């Protein structure tokens, strides 16, 4: 005999649904998302350098999709163009919120992190270009944008692990910088890595995005309507020659943040687990797998100008660009650093901005898709540079975290256990 419907619903709500809710909440935390990204990249590296490396290549290159729609793409391309569009949709929603109600709404408050993001993109690009021109390899200049991007998920995950007592203003500065960095990186992808442009599909994509925007602005939330529109917009953007992830950003920009039909928080809340738990790790798995060839192969890769150009851009260019731009702007304009921050904190954060992973690997694929040697060099460089930048940033910020922890302990010390910190006790002069 079948159970009554209410009982089935009650069982479902008490078991499966709470379990999924707990998993979703875990995937929304920065540390879990960063850990999954790291695990996926390490798994890809291990597989690509194992005796079964050919299997990894076969899986990555396996083609699936309707040929009639020109969507017969490899698994790796589906990860980069398809799944990553979910990540960029969430980025688009975040950008929209920052411009409407966040730090980017106030030009005076946003001036420093915006300038830092620009400086953190210009200096790495100049270093990469300078190295490849000086070594006589102008054919590599297509990769100038590889070291300009900061991986927001990875950087914030590292900061979340080590920042037990660091000022919250440091995270806000890094978040604003990374959001602007993502916006500029998207512009770079759309403008500089679009080789063939088909206006018909592009117009169709923009019209479909406009219809999607009109629907969400009117308060229509049904996935049966919005999901097909998003898929059509993505497919048309892909057919236009513009990288398909740009569709994700534009769709995210249409979502209302304020008003009766505000949906930004709700959509981001629902899609972040999919982005952090599936889209980004799967992309990292298929993007990071490179056959290094042992220590000798790694050493040979480090001798190539593409490799050390990217590493120098991430490890040196990013912190120099971010820190120097911030300092000069604060020194010679009315812009000022948050009162809770010291310049050494900003330097540690600037080092952390050198973690370039998701977008850097994506740009590397676009820049060297017809040059497999340079493509592999980019992967090695991005992984190496990101690890070095992360370790350097961790060393600086851990020392600062210890300083702020001692300050916190001194401010909260209650030696007589009366519930009032000693610093607030009235001072009693000796008789």
TrEMBL record:
It catalyses: Na(+)(in) + 2 H(+)(out) = Na(+)(out) + 2 H(+)(in). It is a multi-pass membrane protein. It is found in: Cell inner membrane; Cell membrane. Its main location: membrane. Pfam families: Na_H_antiport_1. Signal peptide: none annotated. Keywords: Antiport, Cell membrane, Ion transport, Membrane, Sodium, Sodium transport, Transmembrane, Transmembrane helix, Transport. Gene3D superfamilies: Na+/H+ antiporter like domain. One of its GO terms (biological process) is regulation of pH. GO terms for cellular component: plasma membrane. The chain crosses the membrane at residues 31-49, 69-93, 114-135, 141-163, 170-193, 199-216, 223-240, 246-264, 276-302, 308-330, 342-368, 380-398. The keyword Membrane applies. InterPro entries: Na/H_antiporter_dom_sf, NhaA. The keyword Transmembrane applies. GO terms for molecular function: sodium:proton antiporter activity. Belongs to the NhaA Na(+)/H(+) (TC 2.A.33) antiporter family. Na(+)/H(+) antiporter that extrudes sodium in exchange for external protons. This is Na(+)/H(+) antiporter NhaA. The gene is nhaA.
